[in-house]
Model the fold of this input.
Amino acid sequence: MSAQESVTADRRRQFAEEARSERPDLALLCLLLGAEAGPVGPEEPRPVRPGDASPDPYGIDAAQIELDRLAGLLPHGIRTPVGWAGALAGLLGERHEFGGSPADYQRLESSLLQQVLRRRRGLPILLSVVWIEVARRAGAPVYGVALPGHFVVGFGDPEHPVLVDPFTGGAPLTGEEAGLFVAGATGARLEPSMLAPARPLEIVLRILNNIRAWAAARPERTDVSLWAVDLSLLLPSHPARLRYERAQLLVQRGEFQRGAAEMEEYAEVLDTIEPTTAETVRHKAQAARALLN
Done:
């Protein structure tokens, strides 16, 4: 195993352990996820070697320090959800100009917490993670709200939340506006259950799904698709079909033997519940092996 492979294996082991802990640390999981994309900064990615002069090449420690620093800038004595929402909007949305635009959906960096903290731009869900983690450190009653089509932040009682949209710098979000997001994404009405606080692992899986969607639109980035699937499979709860997706990615990348073997393993899982689909997967495995000739 190379030094780089060893670093990756250790990082993924830490990701899996944190995901299975009693109280998963959202920031740490997002930072370990972001490290999969490579070193932080304008320099070209480089392998990590034992004794590397940079103690924090993936920006994990620096990002945690920045979250702590931002939390320390919030005023003391805030007591109401509206007060917390206004203070965070003033600090993050106005003073530090965290926000997003349609162009940010086209950038992988918009889904990586280290890069969002550095660029102060990102997707709604990553900007929400910044808000959640800064507010949580300061003692705010904060949580993520996974509306279909648009992730936002809530303060106070989940039954009567104060909602804000970090993508627009922390603009207050009325129930009617939240309903418009839901209607635009699903055609359905806003249901009270949609306002329930999102759990850390749900947030992480949604981020990984976004990354997989970004990479799927770029066939040359199967490397990103593969690590996003690998991390998704390390979560305690994930769609079983991801195993098949991983096998297909291996075949796309020319690893025909490994891809075929993983397809056959997935077919065994399907045998008792979807035998017809299992047989189709086995045929695809045979076709993948044929490409070795």
Residues 3-19 form the longest helix (17 residues).
